[in-house]
Structure prediction request, 107 residues.
Amino acid sequence: SVTLIKAEPGEVDSSGRRIPVDIKGSEFEIEVDSVIIAIGQSPTFSGSDIVNTDQKGLIVTNPDNMATSSPGIFAGGDAVNGGTTVVQAVADGRKAAEAIGKMFAVL
Prediction:
């Protein structure tokens, strides 16, 4: 099981995002089979010499297939969008996988 707590938007931080504030007494548990932990991180490569990056240092991709400026290299998730949701990262991975499959004519 996983214990969760409800939160509400708090003060705005230096990035312009509101900091979540726990709501006391709102803890609850849910039963799960697995948990995917997704935390926003920055890519750890000097990308501009490998693939094109934008002014924020994010990898530039074709949104239709997640291809980068270097043939055969695909990217997605936080390295491309700066951090949204795990659902978006998985969707990016699916697009890239389909494109890779087409490259090798396996899909």
About this structure: The helical segments are 78-81, 86-103.
